[in-house]
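Translate structure to sequence.
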């Protein structure tokens, strides 16, 4: 599968990508393409809107834009763009740490453990990401979600 991913013949699911990152001992932002600075005024603390690194998961109707300016921080910030009937995929995700976010546009279903929530524009959430979870857009409109991750690190890491 890694060979197919490297050659652009397949796109991994979020769950597969997360497992690959865990096996390699890297966080998800490390697999994003390097961002290009939009202009000289964008320093190491700023990510310009037009210079975000993106990962697209067309099979699932999901795009992740990396909002974090540095790959060495203890928080990961993403903009999740979820197409109608799109989401994180059929499999539940499990990752040590914490996740939270806010719906910027549209409506999503958030499943955490045995609970399912309908979250709409302006709603925010936070949960232990060790619980099985996933998102899904049941509407006919694109949804945008600010997604924040605080991964648990291996002892000795920042």
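Result:
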């Amino acid at each position: 599968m890694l060979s197919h991913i490297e050659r652009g013949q397949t796109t991994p699911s979020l769950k597969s990508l997360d497992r690959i990152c865990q096996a390699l001992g890297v966080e998800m932002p490390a697999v994003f393409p390097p961002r290009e600075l939009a202009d000289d005024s964008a320093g190491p603390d700023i990510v310009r809107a037009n210079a975000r690194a993106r990962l697209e998961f067309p099979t699932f109707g999901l795009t992740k834009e990396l909002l974090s300016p540095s790959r060495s921080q203890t928080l990961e910030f993403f903009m999740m763009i979820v197409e109608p009937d799109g989401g994180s995929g059929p499999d539940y995700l499990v990752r040590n740490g914490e996740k939270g976010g806010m719906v910027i546009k549209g409506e999503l279903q958030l499943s955490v453990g045995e609970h399912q929530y309908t979250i709409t524009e302006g709603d925010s959430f936070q949960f232990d990401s060790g619980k099985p979870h996933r998102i899904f857009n049941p509407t006919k409109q694109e949804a945008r979600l600010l997604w924040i991750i605080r991964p648990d690190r291996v002892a000795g890491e920042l």
